[in-house]
Amino acid sequence: MDFLLGWRVFPLLTLLASFLFFFYMKTSSKPSNSECSLLPHDRFWILSNNIVTPTGVISGAVEVRGGNIISVVNKENQQWKIKSNVVDYGDAVVMPGLIDVHAHIDEPGRTEWEGFSSGTKAAAAGGVTTLIDMPLNSYPSTVSEETLKLKVDAAEDKIYVDVGFWGGLVPDNAFNRSALEGLLKAGVLGLKSFMCPSGINDFPMTNASHIKEGLNVLAKYKRPLLVHAEVELDSESDSEASDGINDVRSYSTYLKTRPPSWEAAAIRELLAVTKDTRTGGPSEGSHVHIVHLSDTRASLDMIKGAKSSGDSLSVETCPHYLAFSSEEIQDGDTRMKCSPPIRDSANRERLWDALTEGHIDMLSSDHSPTVPELKRFDEGDFLKAWGGISSLQYVLPVTWSYGRKYGITLNQLASWWSERPAKLAGQDLKGSIVSGSHADIVVWEPDTEFELDDNHTAYHKNPSISAYMGKRLSGKVLATFVRGNLVYKEGQHAPVACGVPILAK
Ligand SMILES: *[C@@H]1O[C@H](CO)[C@@H](O)[C@H](O)[C@H]1NC(C)=O
Ligand SMILES: *[C@@H]1O[C@H](CO)[C@@H](O)[C@H](O)[C@H]1NC(C)=O
Ligand SMILES: *[C@@H]1O[C@H](CO)[C@@H](O)[C@H](O)[C@H]1NC(C)=O
Ligand SMILES: [Zn+2]
Questions:
Q1: Name one Pfam family in it (predicted).
Q2: What is the mean pLDDT of residues 232-241?
Q3: Which pTM does this prediction carry?
Q4: Is residue 481 part of a domain?
C-alpha cells in the first residue's frame, strides 16, 4: 500500500517541485540576476545635490531596494550617512527616467530599421527608462492579440529598458468589439489610429466612425486612443509639386504638400467625437491623445477649447518641432522629413509658448527611423524619401539644449518627459522620484557639452540618419537605472538585457 502510494505520489511531487522551480526561476531570475545591473547591490543610496522630485529639486538621497524607491530624504536628514552602498553623483541631476510614449522599434519584420536590442540600448544611453512601442512600422502591425504576441516574443531577452505596447485601431477591427477587447485584454496600453494614410500598407487609416467605436471599447478599459491628426485635403501646391514645378530637393516643396489646414481639419473632425469622453458621455473613461502636434494656430486653439469644455484630451509635441524650423532645412536634407512637417520659426516659438504655458501636455520622440537608402540621400528627394525622424538617444539633451533659452526648468522636463507620459500610459509606479515608485532614474550633467559627430557612440541601428548628427548638445547622461538595475553607465550597458514587457491587466 505504502509502496503503491509512494509510486503514485513521488512522480507527482517531482513534477510539482520542478514546476515550482522553473516558475521560481522564471519570475525571480531577472531581478536577482547580477548581470542585469552594473551595480552589484539590491539596496543602495543615490546621492545628489540636484534630485528632481515632484515637489522641487532637493539635495539629498534616494534609497533603492528591490528595484523600488523606498525613501527620498533631504541632506539635513543624516540617516543615509551611516549606510554603505552609497553612489554619490555630486552636482549631477538625478531625475525620473524618461518615458517615451511614441517610439517605432520596428521589430519584428523591419529589424533592419531598428530593433528591440538597438532601440532599447539607445534609450538606456539617452536616459529613457520606458518606451511605449507604436503598433506600426514593424511587420506585421500590432492590430490583434496574435500580432501583439509576436511583438512580446520578439522583445524577450532583448530589452534593456521596460517596453509597453500600443495596439492599432484600424478599419478591420474598429467595428469588431471582440477583436478590440481581445487586443486590450492581451495587454496593449491603449490604441493608436491614423486619420490619413500611415505610409504602411497593413495599417490603414480610420475615419470618425471607427474612432467613435474605438473610444467606446476603450472606455471600459480606461485606456487612451492616440491619434495622428492630419487629413488629406486637396491643395493647389499638391498638383504643382507633382507637376514638377517645384524642386523636390527643396524642403518648401514638401512643406506645401502638408499645410497646417490638414492638422486643423483632422482635429475639427476628431473633436466632434472626443465630446463622448466627457463626464456623463457615452465613452466616459476613455481619453484622446493627439500625437506630435506641429500646427500652433487653428489646431492649438481648438485643442484648448475642447480641453476647457471637459473633453478628456491631451497633446504631445516632439523635440524636432522645437529644435528646427523650415527656414533652416537645407536642400536635400531628408533626415528632416516627418509628418506633420516641421514648420517655420514663428510656429516653433509658439510651440515653446504652448509647452511652457501647459497647453501642450508632454513630449515624445516619435523616433521613426528607417534604412539610409529609403532616406534617398543621393537624390535628396523630399517627396519620395521616408518620412520619420531618428532621435531616441538624444531627446533629453536636445530638449534641454534648445529649451534653455526659454528658461525651462528641471521640474518641467520631468513633467513633460516622465510624469505626464506615465499617466497617459497608465503607469502609476513610474515617472516620479517618490517613495514606492520604481527606481527608474537618469543621472545627467546639464552643463557638459558634446558633439554629435562620428566619434559619438550611438546605439541606434542606423545612426547616420539622425536629424541631430553634426549638432553640439548640452546634457550628458552618466547613468540610467531601470527598476534599480544600473543598465547604462558612461558608454557601457549591463551584460544582460533585463527590461520587461509592460502588459496592461
Ligand atoms: C471579429 O474578431 C474575431 C476575433 O479576431 C474574429 O474571430 C471574428 O471573425 C471577427 N468578426 C468579424 C465579423 O469580422
Ligand atoms: C467610415 O468607414 C466605414 C467603412 O469602414 C463606413 O461604414 C462609415 O460610414 C465611415 N464613416 C464616416 C464618418 O465616414
Ligand atoms: C574622431 O577621433 C579621432 C581620433 O581621436 C580624431 O582624429 C578625429 O578627428 C575625430 N573626428 C571628429 C569628427 O571629431
Ligand atoms: Zn510616429
A1: ALN_composite
A2: 66
A3: 0.92
A4: no
Strand-strand pairing, 501-502 and 162-165: parallel
- 57: Cβ below 6 Å to ligand 1? no
User: Which residues crowd ion ligand 4, with CB under 5 Å?
Assistant: 366, 368
- For the CA atoms of 492, 498, 501, 505, the dihedral, rounded to the nearest 10 degrees, stands at -130
Answer positive or negative: Cα dihedral of 136, 138, 140, 142: negative
> How many domains does the structure of the chain reveal?
1
- Which of 175, 205, 209, 213 most suits a substitution to test ligand 2, by most atoms within 8 Å of the C-beta? 209
pLDDT tens-digit series, residues 66-102: 999 999 999 887 666 667 899 999 999 999 999 999 9
Domain that holds residue 271: 97-238+246-429+449-474
Q: 226 - beta bridge partners? A: 192, 289
Polymer length in residues for the chain = 505
CA of 209 to the centre of ligand 2 (A): 6
Going by alpha carbons, the residue nearest to atom 10 of ligand 3 is: 455
Dist CA 202 CA 198 (whole Å): 9
CATH number of domain containing 271: 3.20.20.140
Ligand 1: which of 146, 178, 180 to mutate, most ligand atoms within 8 Å of CB? 178
User: Ligand 1 pocket, 178 CB below 6 A?
Assistant: yes
